[in-house]
Amino acid sequence: MGSFKDVVGHKDIINYIRSAVEKDKVSHAYILNGERGAGKKLLANLFAATLLCEEGGPDPCNTCHSCRQAEGGNQPYDGQVAIGAVVMNRVKSPRYPGSIAEVIYAPGQFGPVSNGSIARYLGGPKASCMQAAQDAINGYTTIGSYTHFRRAGSEVGPDSIVIGSHVFY
What we know:
By secondary structure, the chain is mainly alpha-helical.
């Protein structure tokens, strides 16, 4: 997830948040206001990770269980493996490209590629994601031969599996 040191700008807000955490004077609510793309969600996620961090410092440690959980979007390990299994199932299918990179970078297939957020993961993916990817490459699957997934919503078909906040089909 990173730390407040990785954020460009917002120094006054960051100093205020870090000070509140260090002094144990965190308010019950904060409003982060600004234009779209200004970094409100990043600040909120870092703040939440800091508050939940088991180390208790002014920045998330990124190594404790709580930080790892926050980094994974609270996806369970089985969900991480399932996403890797979708990729591997597509590689094996004649309906999709034949390599991991071609599957992941195919237009419109994976949100983090489409919206550019994949760059933040490539520099230092978390250990559980690396292990899940390796397990999927080695053939471990929690979803059988499914080749698709989406955010779980109210409609889940009979031929699907829900893991974490995703439905696989």
